[in-house]
Write a structure and sequence with these properties.
About 75% of the residues lie in helices and about 5% in strands. The chain is mainly alpha-helical. The chain has a 3-stranded mixed β-sheet. Putative odorant or sperm cell receptor.
Length: about 300
């Protein structure tokens, strides 16, 4: 990605989370544990879904793809953040900064659309169960995944197309541990008001649009479940609780940042950490601990390997 001749900034300085050496060691220990657990947990979900025939359903196909996106999101900035805890002068090249912006918005945009697809899957399964196998076939699931990635990438490109050619001619300190788009835009040597409005509009359309679609879908589903007999609704309600928990924890910080993207408080750094480092951990924790099918598949996989080792 090349930048214009007006841009004399070749690298950005990341101010990180703290200047305290003790705090940085503490953060390193905590976030290393979260990072490793997140990556291994999501890999475990993909392996379990791929190897267990009992999980050969649209919901788990979409869940496996969600885990893949979470693995990608775990790796766009967290490894550098962990290494930077041991570096006094934390820098990132101009190209690396633009790459982080592109990857973050691609993964986040894709995950938003995939969560909507998972809500649609639950909607059909609960509200139209007799037509579920006809509507939610493998081809439709692949189309959902393709659309989620396409929209995420296009969403990211629309941001990057304007950001990469901004004139960065002096200030280069980003008050975060990664290249956060609003913070980078503020460093441009020009009036960025119109750019800020465009960024806010672009991000709000996809985030609020997906969030409203999810709220409407899950409201209809919950009403349907409530009017059914308790014998057939307990498992559906448990699955819905897991889905809704992920949606709330994912969209909460996201909507907060998009409502006040250019007016940052000190606590926003730690919300950014939750959003980029901790959010990918939600998938394996919530779906593994609350989903009986996944836990059963884990036991079958474990027993299979134990028996293989014994033989």
């Amino acid at each position: 990605m090349a930048h214009t001749n007006e841009s004399v900034v070749s690298e950005f300085v990341l101010l990180g989370l703290s200047n305290s050496w003790e705090l940085q060691l503490f953060f390193f220990a905590i976030f290393s544990l979260v990072y490793v657990t997140s990556v291994l947990g999501n890999i475990m979900i993909i392996v379990i879904i791929s190897s267990d025939s009992h999980l050969n359903s649209p919901m788990y196909f979409l869940l496996g793809n969600l885990s893949f996106i979470d693995i990608c999101q775990s790796n766009f900035a967290t490894p550098k953040m962990l290494m930077d805890f041991f570096v006094e002068h934390k820098t990132i090249s101009f190209e690396g900064c633009m790459a982080q912006i592109f990857l973050l918005h691609s993964f986040v945009g894709s995950e938003m659309l995939l969560l909507v697809a998972m809500a649609y899957d639950r909607f059909i399964a609960i509200c139209k169960p007799l037509h579920y196998s006809t509507i939610m076939n493998r081809s439709l699931c692949i189309i959902f995944v393709f659309i989620s990635w396409a929209v995420g990438i296009l969403h990211s490109i629309s941001h990057l197309a304007f950001t990469v050619d901004l004139p960065f001619c002096g200030p280069n300190e980003v008050n975060s541990f990664f290249c956060d788009l609003p913070l980078v835009i503020e460093l441009a040597c020009m009036d960025t008001y119109e750019m800020e409005i465009m960024t806010l509009t672009n991000s709000s359309l996809i985030s609020l649009g997906c969030f409203l679609a999810l709220v409407i879908s899950y409201t209809i589903i919950l009403i349907t479940v409530r009017h059914r007999s308790s014998s057939g609704s307990s498992k559906a309600l448990s699955t819905l609780t897991a889905h809704i928990t992920v949606v709330i924890l994912f969209f909460g910080p996201c909507i907060y940042f998009y409502i006040w993207p250019f007016s940052r408080l000190s606590v926003d750094k730690f919300l950014s950490v939750f959003y980029t480092v901790c959010t990918p951990l939600l998938n394996p924790i919530i779906y593994s601990l609350r989903n009986e099918d996944v836990k059963s598949a884990m036991r079958r996989l474990r027993n299979h390997h134990v028996n293989s080792w014994k033989n």
